[in-house]
Amino acid sequence: MPSVKKFDRSLIENFLNETNLNYLTDKEGDFTVNFAYDEELGCELSFWFIVTGSNDEIYQILVSSDKDIPKNQWARVLMLCNSWNKEKRWPKAYLHVEDMNTDTTGNILLEEQIDLEQGIHQELLNDYTGTILSTSFQFWKWMHLEQGM
Asked: Which InterPro entries match (predicted)?
């Protein structure tokens, strides 16, 4: 039976190594995995695996793409993200714009967070992370192939 462990970056690194994903580490020790352009997705994707929270108890997965969303598409993209969020559990999708008054483009971010203050076992972290990876790719296939974005 798997044992519950204190959540830390080593659990994320174990997942990345077990799945043979090439990753980089930033100065805080968080991980990023980049995927090249894919015709089915219509973009490149970057996954960030982040440990945050006042006691490093929050596991956050943040997904960005290289696809800029022009201002004239913001309303449509907001509706598509709302539709996705209503119908799908993972990941949460939203339009990110730094300054709505001056920016001419935004981008879609996908995100999930889970509080792991009580710990987690490796198998559950692997399953959770794999689910977010898989459903993030599904989101972009849906956006590109079915919604024309």
From this structure: Put_sensory_transdc_reg_YbjN
Q: Which CATH number fits domain 9-146: 3.30.70.100, 3.30.1360.120, 3.30.1460.70, 3.40.50.720?
A: 3.30.1460.70
pLDDT per position as a tens digit, 74-96: 999 999 999 999 999 999 999 99
* pTM exceeds cut of 0.70: yes
Interatomic CA distance for residues 44 and 28, integer angstroms: 24
Amino acid code (one letter) for 47: F
